[in-house]
Amino acid sequence: MRSFRLLIFLALLPSSLYAAVAPVSYDRAEITALRLVPGGAIVTAELAREHGRLVWLFDVSVPGSRNLREIHVDASTGAVVSNTLELPTDR
Does domain 2-90 have CATH number 3.20.20.370? Predict the structure, then answer.
């Protein structure tokens, strides 16, 4: 029941307040994303709701190329839920 109440609460929050209630901090999610792309750098980052859950979204530059890795980190658990290659033609 507690999880349900939290989901209802989060659904009513403006997106700018998501970070205040995300159990996984930006810093922890960033470290997770950067570990997947050695030598990479964060290009963009945001916290968004996707499929009913809060997710940290990162575009990470791939060293030596113009490609990016688009990495999604669950803001509740810290687990990587998506890690895809994004080519320049995809943007």
Answer: no
Tens digit of pLDDT for each residue in 45-71? Answer: 999 988 888 999 999 999 999 999 999
Check whether 32 has a pLDDT greater than 80: yes
Would you kindly state where each structural domain of the chain is located, as residue ranges? 2-90
CA distances from 63 to 4, 31, 36 (A): 42, 17, 12
- Tell me the whole-structure pTM to 2 decimals: 0.78
Give the strands of the sheet with 42-50, arranged side by side. 42-50, 53-61, 68-74, 80-86
Q: Are strands 68-74 and 42-50 parallel, antiparallel or unpaired?
A: unpaired
